[in-house]
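Task 17 of the worksheet. Students: predict the tertiary structure of the chain below and write it out as structure tokens. Keep your answer in the requested format; marks are given for formatting as well as content.
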Amino acid sequence: MIYRLAFIKTTDVYLKVTASTEGTPVLVAIHLNPHVLTVAARLAAIGEKDIHELSSTASKAWVDDGLDVCCDAIELDSDQIKILGFVEDWRRFA
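Model answer:
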């Protein structure tokens, strides 16, 4: 499926990533920083072009506190979603 990703640095200094696509619930993943997200993206076998896009967009959000930054839509399958740490009902972990 094609997902639009958004990144924001949380007040407790984590990188929050949301993934949305039409007709499905919003997914959320929490990473320590953009570097950890990049490692997860490599493990998920995402293409180099998409990894570069994710990494640079996440870094922009990381540098600018409170700035919600989006990247181009990318295609992710269910295994990649799991490897990237996305969950649907993320509030239950808080």
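Marker's comment: The helical segments are 34-43, 48-63, 78-83. The CA atoms of residues 38 and 55 lie 6 Å apart.
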